[in-house]
Design brief:
With about 325 residues, this protein is an alpha+beta fold. The chain is about 35% helix and about 15% strand. Strand 7 (about 300-310) and strand 8 form a beta hairpin. Helix 7 (about 205-215) packs across helix 8. It is found in: Mitochondrion.
Amino acid sequence: MIAAGQCDVVVAGGTELMSDVPIRHSRKMRKTMLTLNRAKTLGQKLALISKIRPDYFAPELPAVAEFSTSETMGHSADRLAAAFAISRLEQDEYALRSHTLAKKAQEGGMLVDVVPFKVPGKETVTKDNGIRPSSLEQMGKLKPAFVKPYGTVTPANSSFLTDGASAVLLMSEEKALALGYKPKAYLRDFVYVSQDPKDQLLLGPTYATPKVLEKAGLTMADVDVFEFHEAFAGQILANLKAMDSDWFAQNYMGRKSKVGAPPLEKFNTWGGSLSLGHPFAATGCRLVITAAHRLKKEGGQYGLVAACAAGGQGHAMLVELYPQ
């Protein structure tokens, strides 16, 4: 909207309250209540009420499910991990890496953009409280969360549901300087992609990354900082394998060769959604600002942000450090 000249200054953000998810009535009960609302006479209302059965009161339990397939994302992650032959140990090792790096970043004062929040009736939350480095032994004791008993996705190697909010201030460089602001970074380029929402629901970063690099005229070697959304450890590892596979590029992406996997020394080095949590509406801003802060801290120029999303969507964005 800024590029199109429709806006000068935009605040973009989102809020998610996963600790108090609305629980719906059953479909039968909802239909009856809607019909009851249109009933004109007392007789019509009583006739409808008389049709209500005990099973109408059974609630629909909340689930993080893909709307086009009704499959929970955990099941999708389990199938994706199996398709790419990613073991439970590999997933636990990556999750442990995420928590360990997040703890190091938190203690080192890297996560400076967290705003304290007073929870009514409780203490003020001053930092992300889901960071819990454990051990592979302890993580190995947890049972599969979705595909039982043989699945590999567990609570330890999945992003946890949490409350959160975020906001980011956007404007043109000219407007920012006129108002006396010093930008953190440029939004250099971005793309959205989509793929099969069943078998490739979580592979958005694989499809989006080469497109955004080509659009910007850059290569993987030009990128100094990678920030990918960690929905599940299996999802991240599957994307890294797919990005590093000529066979996958040729058979599924219509490309002659692979784009290559990001080197881990540049990848999510301050932790990620596995350790910081994933309040859906707030994660995007966190990824972008973390990339900007890492570029400044590490002296890099380009950061690549990528994420998967519901509906088989994927997104990738290039941010560039603003000259210091």
